[in-house]
Structure formats: C-alpha cells, structure tokens
Amino acid sequence: MKTKMKTGPFIIIMVIAIIIAIYTLMPFILVVVNVFKSAKGEFGIANDPVGLKGASFAQLGDNLSRVINNSNFSFWSAFGTSALITIICLVLLAVFGGMAAWVICRNKTKWSTAIYMVFIASMIIPFQVVMLPLISTFRDVGNFVGLKLLQSIPGIVFAYLGFGGAMTVFILTGMVKTVPYDLEEAASIDGCSYEGIYFRIIFPLLKPSIVTVTILNGMWIWNDYLLPSLMLGQNGKVKTLPVAVQAFVGSYVKQWDLILTAALLAMIPMIIIFLIAQKQIMSGMVEGAVK
Amino acid sequence: MSEVIIKGLKKVYDNKVTAVHDVNLHIADKEFIVLVGPSGCGKSTTLRMVAGLEDISGGELYIDGKLCNNVAPKDRDIAMVFQSYALYPHMSVYENLAFALKLRKVPKDEIDKKVREVAEILGITQYLERKPKALSGGQRQRVAIGRAMVRDPKVFLMDEPLSNLDAKLRNQMRAEIIKLRARINTTFMYVTHDQTEAMTLADRIVIMKDGYVNQIGTPQDLFNKPVNLFVAGFIGMPVMNFFDGCKLLLEDGKYYAEIRGVKFELDEFQQKALKQNGQQPCNIIAGIRPQHVTVGEGQLSATIEVSEMMGSEYNIHARSGDDEVVMVIPTVDLHTDVSMGKTVQFNTKPALIQLFDKESGNNLIWYDKESADADAPVCKVYQF
Ligand SMILES: Nc1ncnc2c1ncn2[C@@H]1O[C@H](COP(=O)(O)OP(=O)(O)O)[C@@H](O)[C@H]1O
Ligand SMILES: [Mg+2]
C-alpha cells in the first residue's frame, strides 16, 4: 500500500528536488545555451555566459562546422578512437570479467579467494595514487621490453581492463552465485565443453549484470579524461574526445565556443544511450547498490 | 546393448569422507535399477560417478563394455534428470529439448522432428515456446524428462526426479514413468529415498546404507527375503514389526523361534537352511510384517491403542508388552472386535517369521556370506 504524502511536505520536497536538479544540470545547461552563441561580442560567451541573447541556430551551425573541420581537433578521428577504445574495453571486460567471476565463484580454493580479495582491494585504492607510477612503469616497459603501451590503443585498453576489472568481477561474482550449479552439470551431460558451458549457459544468464557493468564502465571510459591525457598525451597521434577538446584550450586564449561545442558533441552519444537504456541503467544502479 | 558394469566403485570426498564403499553392480541392458536408501547413504554419489559428475576414487565403471572412469560426461552417452530439473532458464522449452542435439550437430529438421515427437509423448507440445519459469512443477518435470529422452541415451539416470512434486502429482508421474519406460526401452538408473517408488518402478533394487550396498534384488526378494534388519525395516509399508529378546531354539533336531515365550515350530525350508548353516541356538530379533499378522486366535496377545479403518483393511496399532505391534488386517478376514482398548490374540505363520541374529543383525536364513560385503558395518536395529 502506498501511503499518500500530505500536500505541504510534498511541495517542499519537490522544490528541493527541483533546486538540486537545476544545480546538477547547470554545467550541462551552460553548454547547451552557449553552443548557440559566438565567443566574442556584447552577448558572446565571454561577456554573457548565461543569457540567451545572441543565441541563434546559424551560430550553432557555424560553431559545429568550425569544430568538425578543425584540423587540430580532428573530430572524426578522436570520435573513432574513443568509440574503438570504449567498445573494445566493454567487450573484453564483459567476456573476461564474466570468466573470472565464474572461475572464482566455482573453484573455492585458497588461491581463488586470494585473487578475489586482490580484486576487491584494488577497488579501494584511488586512481590518483597509482597513476604516476603506472605511467613510468608503462614507459619502462616501452623502453626495455619494446612493448609500446603509451600513446597506443592496446596500451590504454590494457590499462582500462585493469582499472575496470575489479568492479566488473565484483558485480558479476554476485550474479554467478545465483546461477544453480546443476545447470552446468546438466550442460556438461548434454554435451557442452568447458568453454561451451561458459558461453552457452553462464554468459547468457549473466546478461542483466553484464548490461549493468557495461553501462557503468561505458560511461566512465567514454568520459574519462585523466587516464587518456596521461597515457595518450596532447601531442600524440592517438587522442580520445575529451583529450582532443584540449586543442581549443590555449595558455592565453580559450576558445569557449569551440570548447563547448566539442564538449556537446562528445556528450551526445552518451545522452542517446542514456535515453534508450534509461530503465536498465536505473535498475542496474539499484541492483549494484543492493548487492 | 548398453549394460553398465560397476566393479568395486568407491568415492572419497576431499575432506576424507568415504561416501561410497565398494559398490558392485551388473546392470543388464534395458534393466530398470533403483538405488534406494536413507538420505546421505551415497545414492546420489554413486549415480553421479556413473554420470561423470564426480571423479571415481576407486574401482571400475564400464558402460557398454567401455571403461569410462576417465571419460568426460558428454562422451559417455548418458542422460540425466536432476531433482531440481536444471532447465536452462534463458531458453524456451523447445530450445531446452533441442540443446543436446544441437551440440551434437544433428540436422535442424531432424532435431525438429525429434523434439516434437518427444513433446507429443509427454504432452507438452503447447508449451514449446514458453520459458521454464512459466511452467508448473509437473510441466517442468516433463520437460526435464523430455530433454533426456530426445537423446536416445545408452543410460538414463534420474536422481530423485519426483521428490519436488506434491503427493498427488508424484503418484501420477510415477505411473507415467512406468509407461515411458516401455517406450524408451533403455537402461535406467533411478535414485530415490522412497521405498514405494523403488518397489513400483524397479526391476531390481539396490538398497544402500552408509555408503555400503546391503542387498540387491527384485522387489519381491527384498520384501520376502531381507538379508538384515536394515533392509527388513526399510522395505515395506507399514514398517515390519520387530520383537527383541526372542530366541532360536534347537530341540530334538528341530528349530523353534520363541517369541515372548511362545514357541513356533519353523517351516520346512527354514529348518533346512538353518541345518545347512549348522546354526546354533542363539538370541534373535524376530520380524513379522504387519500384513502377515492374523487376529482372533493365537497365543500372543496385544492391547489395541489405535484402530484405523482404511476401507478394505484395518490398520491397527497395538501394544504387546514392550513392543508396539502394527497389524494390517483385510476387512473380510476380520471377525474380532478391534475397537480401541480391546485386548486381542494374534498369530502368524512360522514361515513368515524373519529371524535376525541379535549380534550381527543379519537374517539367519537369507544372509549370504558369499555375496555380502564383509566390511559393511553391523546393522543391529533399524531406525529411521
Ligand atoms: N561434495 C561433497 N563433499 C563432501 N562430502 C559430500 C559431498 N557430497 C556428498 N557428500 C557426503 O557423502 C555422503 C553421501 O551423499 P549423497 O550421495 O548425496 O547421499 P544421498 O544421495 O544418498 O542422500 C553424505 O554423507 C554427504 O554428506
Ligand atoms: Mg541425493
């Protein structure tokens, strides 16, 4: 039974909620408002970042074409790099994360417990603590072993698998526990090999949790700035979208119109995915919170 | 031909628990074998070793003449029905049934034909598109059996397949399995803790306790010739009456059983068997099945405590000294007042008295030293 809230408290809560919503959305609103404006002029972004005067679709078109055609920014290449890195990471995290979770869950030995503990422990360590040693280690590997990990897509994918693996395995292990072991035995009698059991039985049954971790990892990897900026750098050939936006940020001149337009372009795929998969994301978050 | 030969099969779990000691069993082609025994006696473990789900710690397993100790489950050509049904929740009923055939790369139209044929037999055709979640317990059970049937396996294994069903459905499915068996025509190994299931389904029953096989035989054998107290107590409903403190007497070359001071001269075949064994007089526990008691005459007496009229028969619980005596008396044979509180005389035929050695718990007539497992622990008194 739902108890109906009294009108007074309801209004107060709604007002607070709306204020919090606006507060959270402010950066996004600023982006959306200002992509319609030019950088300079009386009503330009620099002088009037919140007003709607001076906003026009013509200006938006102009901003878009300047961003997309900018040779320093090279939008399509950055977009492609971001998409490639994100997709590869998501697929590998889902497949290997599921495998790791399955094996950890089903082989209860001292070793598997220890490995699981290491996964959990690694979630506690903040990224900022390990980022500088990580970069220098990667550089050493490049110098001495000849494996190019910096400024390369395989390198950053490798790093993301490490940073994303812990949470993925953590969430998926919880899910594997809910799959009855009988199913695997039945499958092995029906004719499945060991790999067959994973891909035909376990992986499909992990689907709800796979969707959850894919969305969480996807939002993080697509939007991430710090790791790619350290690993790929400003001057390399390979850049992700958030890193490429830096092209418009000079030491003295900040081209706000282009920065914001590029930021909007970077956001659009995530916004579309969010709108499509809204229900899944919400239930995924709740699930993650409960488990 | 798909006979299963089990020689000295043994299972020791990691934590040093010996779950199964030395099981020897020769299952003929198309035979229906039921493993029965109380919970924890090692029935499932034995079955799972045949299936390949547990490693075999010792002994040999031959399926169809081939040594299978180290063969993977998928290569043993067996099918198994699990207690939990273990249906794949992400697949429709159709896909569940087709799964094993698909893995074996059977052509699509052949799979379709086979799946529909099996679904027809089991009456689940209208559910083929459903997911298992949308089925009742009985329907899931059918799908689980169907999944095993489509394979035409060499051996059909079932681990307590009916124990998750309610009593009515269980009786119904039991009858269906008997019907199915006639159609499938393969070798069956069936595990249950329910002696009624074992008695009604089996060609031969293997009765186990604490990891040891106690007796292997037809349902009639187990009922009429139990080798020890455990088998006598486990098989038969209601449970056999046991009278402790009885004696086997030998007077003038004739054996007598003395029950509560009353002497019964034993039957011809009992005399012969005891003589052959050179049996000396000893303390025994006498066993009499409730169905073998007659009321009205006789030197034994008992006071009736509960008397249940079941229609064609009376179930009577009476007290005779320290022992509780259960009697099942056909209504037509009853000419005595058996209402509560009455004291009645009762009797039995000496040939129907089972004689168990007080020391070993073994049946003096039917226990066979040759075939029995000498290491098996002594079973003195049967308890649930
Ligand atoms: N995986 C296991 N590890 C250790 N001991 C087990 C395992 N499975 C079963 N056992 C033990 O083996 C014995 C036989 O078990 P089981 O074959 O399942 O009995 P049943 O099916 O007759 O009830 C029991 O004592 C049980 O505790
Ligand atoms: Mg069992």
Protein described:
Chain A has helices at about 5-35, 55-70, 75-105, 110-125, 125-145, 155-175, 180-190, 195-205, 205-225, 225-230, 240-245, 255-275, 280-290. The radius of gyration of chain A is 23 Å and the shape is globular. Helix content of chain A is about 75%, strand content about 0%. By secondary structure, chain A is mostly helical. Chain B folds into two domains: about 5-225, P-loop containing nucleotide triphosphate hydrolases (Rossmann fold, 3-Layer(aba) Sandwich); about 240-355, Nucleic acid-binding proteins (OB fold (Dihydrolipoamide Acetyltransferase, E2P), Beta Barrel), CATH 2.40.50.140. In chain B, β9 (about 205-210) and β10 (about 210-215) form a beta hairpin. Chains A and B meet through α7 and α8 of A and β6 and α2 of B.
Mass-distribution shape of chain B: globular
Return the CATH class of the largest domain in chain B.
Alpha Beta
Strand content of chain A: under 5%
What letter string, H or E per element, gives the SSE order of chain A? HHHHHHHHHHHHH
**Helical/strand content category of chain A:** mainly alpha
**Mean pLDDT, all residues of chain B:** 91
| Class based on secondary structure composition and strand pairing of chain B | alpha+beta
Uncertain segments of chain B are: none
Quick one: CATH class of the domain at 83-234 in chain A? Mainly Alpha
Rg for CA atoms of chain A? 23 Å
| Strand elements of chain A, count | 0
Topology order of chain B in helix (H) and strand (E) letters: EEEHEEEHHHEHEHEEHHEEEHEEEEEE
Largest interface chains and counts: A-B, 17 and 21 residues
Radius of gyration of chain B: 24 Å
Q: What's the name of the CATH homologous superfamily of the largest domain in chain B?
A: P-loop containing nucleotide triphosphate hydrolases
CATH topology of the largest domain in chain B: Rossmann fold
Overall average pLDDT of chain A: 88
> Largest sheet of chain B, order of strands side by side?
6-7-8-3-9-10
Question: How many domain modules of chain B?
Answer: 2
Largest sheet of chain A: none
Structure annotation, total helices of chain B: 9
